[in-house]
Write a structure and sequence with these properties.
There is one protein chain. The chain folds into three domains: 25-87, Chitin binding domain (Antimicrobial Protein, Tachycitin, Chain A), CATH 2.170.140; 89-153, Chitin binding domain (Antimicrobial Protein, Tachycitin, Chain A, Beta Complex), CATH 2.170.140.10; 155-240, Antimicrobial Protein, Tachycitin, Chain A (Beta Complex), CATH 2.170.140. By secondary structure, it is α+β, with helices and mostly antiparallel strands. It has helices at 2-17, 142-145, 231-239, and strands at residues 32-35, 42-47, 50-55, 61-62, 72-73, 100-103, 112-117, 120-125, 131-133, 138-140, 182-184, 191-196, 200-205, 211-213, 218-220. The longest helix is centred in the first third of the chain and has 16 residues, at 2-17.
């Protein structure tokens, strides 16, 4: 009875002697790195069963499933689960934290974002027609990003004045969406325009005597394209 009383007294005093929020981590294995149960960017390194508390670089979080030596990764690559807490941010300019991918401070500039490494930012512009998605750290279609009030990156023009049309038929005969539609050249049957993501123009060309067929959006034999039936003969004449 006396021993039981002493043990109870020590436990009781110990339980109330520690400050609020105190947590003592017990190593589940002699060696390894293990996540904190409350804070996603905190982990413990165990050596011979003794735990040392560590923090990921600001902006990164600990991934217990990682097989790498350094288990700190971008938040969008890690499922933190109930580990909701994070260390206080150390913002530098547009870098909301020292490391990570962050949107432009102007919320209307949805196509520009920053890759921050140790507080140094690199400005990145999405391909035309795409918006930065903070949850995935990549550029996606506007409807996927779900951002509002975006100005977007304006449609570009080629030197010959071509600009991708604002409205076009974006589905083919089978009802499939056409992500990069093509458009015929106004005067050259062998040339056509490619609109990347529907807004960024590139000049394409058919070779080997073929011409562009706007119906199939492919290079085809001249006789299959109305108005270009004699294009091969015309191109030979123009080269003389």
């Amino acid at each position: 009875m006396h021993k039981q009383y002493l043990l109870f007294t020590v436990f009781t005093v110990g339980a109330f002697a520690v400050p609020d929020g105190y947590y003592q981590f017990n190593c589940p294995k002699e060696h390894g790195q293990f996540e904190d149960p409350y804070q996603c960017d905190k982990y413990y390194e165990c050596n011979n069963g003794r735990a040392t508390e560590k923090l990921c670089p600001d902006g990164l979080v600990f991934d217990p499933e990682s097989k790498r030596v350094s288990k700190c990764d971008q938040p969008f690559n890690v499922d933190c689960g109930d580990r909701k807490e994070l260390q206080p941010p150390n913002q530098v300019g547009v870098c909301l934290r020292q490391n990570g991918f962050f949107p432009h401070p102007d919320p209307s500039m949805c196509h520009i974002f920053y890759n921050c490494v140790n507080g140094q930012e690199l400005e990145i512009t999405c391909s035309a027609g795409l918006h930065f998605d903070w949850e995935t750290g990549i550029c996606v279609w506007p409807e996927t990003a779900g951002r509002t009030g975006c100005k977007g990156n304006p449609n570009r023009k080629l030197n010959d004045g071509f600009q991708c049309p604002a409205e076009y038929k974006n589905v083919d005969g089978n009802g499939q969406i056409i992500p990069h539609p093509n458009f015929p050249h106004p005067s050259d049957c062998a040339k056509f325009y490619i609109c990347l993501n529907g807004v960024e123009p590139r000049l394409g060309a058919c070779f080997g005597g073929l011409v562009y067929n706007p119906e199939t959006q492919r290079c085809d034999e001249p006789e299959n394209v109305p108005g270009c039936e004699h294009w091969q003969n015309q191109s030979v004449e123009s080269e003389k």
